[in-house]
Each structure stands twice: as structure tokens, then as C-alpha cells.
Specification:
By secondary structure, this protein is mainly α. It has a single domain, classed as ACP-like (Non-ribosomal Peptide Synthetase Peptidyl Carrier Protein, Chain A). The protein has helices spanning 26-32, 58-72, 89-102, and strands at residues 7-9, 12-14. It has a two-stranded antiparallel ribbon. Strand 1 (7-9) and strand 2 (12-14) form a beta hairpin.
């Protein structure tokens, strides 16, 4: 499993891919946490827990998408808006980080 390292090289931030410990930048979690409605989950997120188990429904996903696009500078493509992408924090971060680091303006 690939773990992320927030590293800067040649003006490029490597956002990486989350491991099961939720290894992503704090800003990703700061965006995600306000959408968590399940009171049993504290301030830290496990990468593998389903977003639905956190209380994140389809309406919340729309707001989450808008915030992630603005923060990380890309747009989700139609192909990337699917249940696999929005299954868990880890799967979502995998897509966001891939496109945020690629310089592409649209997620594929």
C-alpha cells in the first residue's frame, strides 16, 4: 500500500495516497469532518470506513465535491463521480490526490 508523504520538490506537492491510518494532509480531513454526522466517530478518520457509515449521504457528497475541487484545484469528471470514488475517505483521497498532483484540471 502506498502511503502519502507531504513533500515539496520542484514546486510540486506530493499529496500521495492514503493508507489505512488516514495519511493525508490535514486540509483534506478538515474539509471532510464537517460532513460526518455519526456522533460515534471522533476527530480522526480511518481511511477504510465507508462514508455512508459516517453519515455522509449523496447530498453531502455534492458539497464535499465542491469544496475539494476548490481546495485542490481540479474538477471531478463524470467518470470519477461513482460509488467507488466516494466509498471511503481513502478511496476519495486516492482520486483527489492523483488529480491534484497531476496538474490536470479535470479528474478522470
Amino acid at each position: 500500500m502506498i502511503t502519502s508523504r507531504l513533500a515539496t520538490s520542484v514546486g510540486h506537492v506530493d499529496y500521495g495516497v492514503a493508507d489505512s491510518m488516514g495519511d493525508w494532509p490535514d486540509r483534506f480531513e478538515q474539509i471532510l469532518l464537517p460532513y460526518v454526522t455519526d456522533p460515534d466517530h471522533g476527530d480522526a478518520l480511518d481511511a477504510d470506513i465507508p462514508l455512508a457509515a459516517l453519515g455522509i449521504d449523496s447530498m453531502a457528497v455534492v458539497g464535499l465535491m465542491i469544496e475539494l475541487e476548490a481546495e485542490f484545484g481540479f474538477s471531478f469528471s463524470e467518470e470519477s463521480v461513482n460509488p467507488q470514488t466516494f466509498y471511503s475517505p481513502g478511496s476519495l483521497w486516492s482520486v483527489v490526490s492523483r488529480f491534484a498532483t497531476s496538474g490536470l484540471r479535470r479528474a478522470e
